[in-house]
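Q: Please design a sequence for this.
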């Protein structure tokens, strides 16, 4: 006979003791760790084990970048400059903090000169005798270049004001334009790139990329009075050379046409792959210019959405010829 009480029967579930669950979880974690460890040396990792596996801290590199932005545009880019703080004290404090942060991170980065995958493939495996001294030299040298960076950025701001009819003040450009944020980061990262600092310049450029949608490799050579209007989707490759007073619109790609392959099947690095834009060039939205041999001559105008694989003479205008727009009225 069934239960006449009117209550539904209950099912008792026997739970494992907490101690058993903890033991099972700990054993699982141990097994996964054991399975992972060999992969860290089998996946092409080139973390310098001689430096206890240290790599530059992304957080500290970005902090240094923000300090440097504050030095270049006090109170207009990363931190507020209050009425109670003198400009001199503000700049000195940010410079000091940037120096302390960069010194540590540059020292961590330097071993990649002789332990990185590219260095190993080129036989550059001899460690420098004193990485700490080299980090001190590089960081001090970098600081001496900041006034020159600032001078170039002032001209970039002026170019943005001249080139954008929507710009009402220089301050508006400094506090809000993604193009200026991207080129500010680039001019900082480019100087570290020139000083042969591994990793850190690319960390800076990719941080700017993630925040602005503008991807500029730190190796690109960019002249003064440079302006990126709107900016989203702009890509500028490592070996690009850009002259003075150049203006790019959104979606422009200055890229590689093809990649040279060595006999062993690996890509050849360190050669010019990206185009050259001479002075006073304007490139409109979504244009694509490819190839290390491609030169866009002085004063040329590249129209929207064109695809360029060969050089353009000075003063020329390049447009899509047979594009037709049809307007249908009701």
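A: Design:
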């Amino acid at each position: 006979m069934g239960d006449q009480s009117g209550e539904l029967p209950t099912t008792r579930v026997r739970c494992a003791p907490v101690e058993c669950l903890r033991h099972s979880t700990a054993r699982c974690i141990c097994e996964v760790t054991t399975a992972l460890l060999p992969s860290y040396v089998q996946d092409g990792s080139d973390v310098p084990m001689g430096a206890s596996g240290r790599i530059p801290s992304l957080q500290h590199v970005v902090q240094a970048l923000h300090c440097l932005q504050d030095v270049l545009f006090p109170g207009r880019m990363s931190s507020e400059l209050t009425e109670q703080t003198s400009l001199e004290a503000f700049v000195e404090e940010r410079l000091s903090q940037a120096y302390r942060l960069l010194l540590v991170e540059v020292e961590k980065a330097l071993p990649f000169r002789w332990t990185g995958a590219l260095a190993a493939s080129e036989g550059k495996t001899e460690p420098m005798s004193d990485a700490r001294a080299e980090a001190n030299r590089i960081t001090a040298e970098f600081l001496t270049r900041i006034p020159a960076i600032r001078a170039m950025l002032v001209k970039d701001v002026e170019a943005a004001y001249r080139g954008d009819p929507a710009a009402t003040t220089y301050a508006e450009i400094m506090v809000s334009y993604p193009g200026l944020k991207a080129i500010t980061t680039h001019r900082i990262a480019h100087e570290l790139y020139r000083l042969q600092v591994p990793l850190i310049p690319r960390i800076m450029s990719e941080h700017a990329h993630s925040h602005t949608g503008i991807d500029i490799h730190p190796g690109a050579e960019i002249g003064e009075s440079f302006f990126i209007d709107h900016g989203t989707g702009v890509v500028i490759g490592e070996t690009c050379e850009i002259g003075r007073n150049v203006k790019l619109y959104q979606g422009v790609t200055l890229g590689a046409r093809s990649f040279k392959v060595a006999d062993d099947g690996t890509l050849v690095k360190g050669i010019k792959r990206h185009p050259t834009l001479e002075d006073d060039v304007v490139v409109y939205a979504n244009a694509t210019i490819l190839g290390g041999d491609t030169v866009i001559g002085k004063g040329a105008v590249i129209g929207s959405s064109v695809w360029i694989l060969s050089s353009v003479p000075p003063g020329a205008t390049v447009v899509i010829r047979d594009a037709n727009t049809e307007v249908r009225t009701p």
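Q: Thanks. Anything notable?
A: The first strand starts at residue 215 and ends at 216. The longest helix spans residues 87-109.
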